[in-house]
Amino acid sequence: MSVLIDGLQYANWSEQIFRQLKEGGVDAVHATITYHETFRETVLNIEQWNRWFEAYPDLIFQGSTAADVKLAQETGRTAIFFGSQNPSCMEDDIGLVEVLHKLGLRFMQLTYNNQSLLATGCYEAEDSGLTRMGREVVAEMNRVGLVVDMSHSGERSTLEAIEHSARPIAITHANPASWHPALRNKSDTVLRALAETGGMLGFSIYPHHLKGGGDCALEDFCSMIARMIDVMGPDHIGIGTDLCQEQPDSVVDWMRMGRWTKRMDYGEGSAAAPGFPPMPSWFSDNRDFGNISSGLRAVGLSDDEVGRVMGGNWLRFFEESFGAQAAGTKVDTRVAQ
């Protein structure tokens, strides 16, 4: 039986959304639990998740290994895998990488749009690549089983992370820049390198990443995925909706501004529309994944290919990525084309 996995969401979580996950048959979600929060603030966010796990044990539970995806499927629940969209949670202490992994973190972006202690974000004018600390942190993330996520990083930093990492990395929520030239979307050079080293791309449904924004047609989105199979192969792509369901517009300020500026930063939006953009009509919540599956079949993908895109590839990546690995070990996890 095929699995359904979303490579990233940042929802305003509630019982309603947890029930929609169940109704939509979503087996696992990589959930952003922290952006610019410090380590202690991130722990407070984990405390909130623990309360949700306690309150809704029939709907959700914390995922830590790929086996939890199968457990979720067997029990009709959703496994929640924690992730961070910035390295702020580890502050300037490499020892916190292992601590965060033990607390359940399974993905961490090396940067969120701006320069960080580890790498350069996609909004900086100059991309200097991985920093000295960045290279050390990537090696530590590889060792403990914390996935390197370069969704918001610049081109050089992303390519250097792919090259330096001893394990495949992920771009959990982005689209090809050749389809829509948003700063956050990735070049075919990056996407080919990602696939060649066994990495994963999660296609985003966040309107600023879509051609036509919220008016993007399902057929156009699915045709783009079909074309990217020619670029990346069928084994390195999945869905990473970047769904921000029920979030108030004020959350956009935290996502984009954090504590680094006092001024409004509009990011990929515009001064006229600084909040969340409207979602496409064909995807508003977790009950709409079936629209994507149907759309992929309509543009010619086989049932096997649809199964890989909708979760099979993410499941394999989870199996390869979440366990500890001896430092310095380079494992070839590429899938034969």
Broad shape: globular
- Which consecutive residue ranges, at least 5 long each, have pLDDT under 50? 331-337
The largest β sheet comes out as: 6 strands, parallel
Q: Regarding CATH, which class?
A: Alpha Beta
- Element pattern in H and E: EHEHEHEHEHEHEHEHEHHH
Mean pLDDT, to the nearest integer, reads: 94
**Number of helical stretches of at least 4 residues:** 11
Number of strands: 9
The helix-and-strand class reads: alpha/beta
Distance from N terminus to C terminus (CA atoms, Å) equals: 23 Å
CATH superfamily: Metal-dependent hydrolases
Please give the share of residues in helix.
25-40%
**At CATH's second level, what is the architecture?**
Alpha-Beta Barrel
Radius of gyration: 18 Å
How many structural domains are formed by the residues?
1
Strand percentage lies at 5-15%
Looking at the structure, the CATH topology is TIM Barrel
Blueprint of the fold:
Elements: E1 5-9, H1 15-23, E2 28-34, H2 39-55, E3 60-62, H3 67-75, E4 78-84, H4 95-102, E5 105-109, H5 132-144, E6 147-149, H6 155-164, E7 170-174, H7 188-196, E8 200-203, H8 218-232, E9 237-239, H9 250-257, H10 289-298, H11 303-321
Parallel strand pairs: 1-2, 2-4, 3-4, 4-5, 5-6, 7-8, 8-9
Molecular structure report:
With 337 residues, the chain is an alpha/beta fold. The chain has one domain (7-321): TIM Barrel (Alpha-Beta Barrel), CATH 3.20.20. Helix content is 38%, strand content 12%. Strands 1, 2, 3, 4, 5 and 6 form a 6-stranded parallel beta sheet that branches. The protein has a 3-stranded parallel beta sheet with strand order 7-8-9. Helix 1 links the parallel strand 1 and strand 2.
